[in-house]
Backbone:
């Protein structure tokens, strides 16, 4: 028996919106720790890892560890039946091939019961070792989102360069080139507006903008984003989900031919 | 430009 109840149902809607453009189908892993997912995009260039800890739910019951294979697009369709202020309950029984979503309006005057078919999904779980990164940039997630959107109108790739001067995002395309530098700014009174750069070594890495732009669909989950970089390693773009966990995106770099 | 590497070039199945 698996049952979880999330009073802030819009959070699940936002989490699925943050995944659906990257991943088609995924196994959701349910255990006493929480509700988690690890999945790659179809070309195996990017990976998303989601963790929603059990303590973050109003009710969380998971009698044994198991996986539920779901189509993310279908899940997004089902969640469209939920209003933003609805309370969401997800239920599944052992051995069944369906999952039930229940949406309750805050005043309890409307209850929707939605059943969705589960899928058998063959997926590799990758081991991601804990790593020390050469540079870690924390910045407002909206700022990062608008930089990626702006640069993707000019070029297909973004080169992220971290130095003592700050972090520079640059691109080049047929119509021209652009670069945007953000300097460290920790003096702001609002911590969510700060840009903080921790650098052990200068790093320069290039990534496909189409993936990075997809990651910024998670912007509404967190006011800050953390970008962790090391030479010749995938970048990690992390959005913390308050009191619950995180969504982390990993993207392999592009290298010169 | 450049060659796109795969995430599986870095992380192995666990």
Residues:
């Amino acid at each position: 028996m698996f049952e979880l109840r999330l009073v802030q149902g819009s959070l699940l809607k936002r989490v699925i919106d943050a995944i659906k453009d990257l991943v088609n189908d995924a196994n959701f892993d349910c255990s006493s720790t929480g509700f988690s997912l690890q999945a790659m995009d179809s070309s195996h260039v990017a990976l998303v890892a989601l963790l929603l800890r059990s303590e973050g739910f109003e009710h969380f019951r998971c009698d044994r560890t198991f996986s539920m294979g779901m189509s993310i697009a279908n899940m997004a369709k089902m969640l469209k039946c939920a209003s933003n202020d609805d309370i969401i309950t997800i239920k599944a029984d052992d051995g069944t091939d369906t999952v039930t979503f229940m949406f309750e309006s805050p005043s309890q005057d409307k209850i929707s019961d939605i059943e969705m078919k589960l899928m058998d999904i063959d997926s590799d779980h990758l081991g991601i070792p804990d790593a020390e990164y050469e540079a870690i940039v924390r910045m407002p997630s909206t700022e990062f989102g608008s930089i990626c959107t702006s640069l993707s109108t000019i070029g297909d790739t973004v080169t992220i360069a971290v130095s003592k001067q700050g972090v520079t995002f640059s691109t080049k395309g047929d119509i021209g080139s652009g670069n945007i530098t953000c300097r460290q700014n920790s003096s702001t009174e609002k911590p969510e507006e700060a840009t903080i750069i921790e650098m052990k070594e200068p790093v320069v890495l290039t990534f496909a903008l189409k993936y990075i732009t997809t990651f910024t669909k998670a912007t509404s989950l967190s006011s800050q984003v953390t970008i962790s970089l090391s030479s010749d390693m995938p970048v990690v773009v992390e959005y913390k989900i308050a009191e619950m966990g995180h969504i982390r995106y990993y993207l392999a770099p592009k290298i010169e031919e | 430009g450049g060659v796109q590497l795969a995430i599986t070039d870095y992380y192995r199945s666990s």
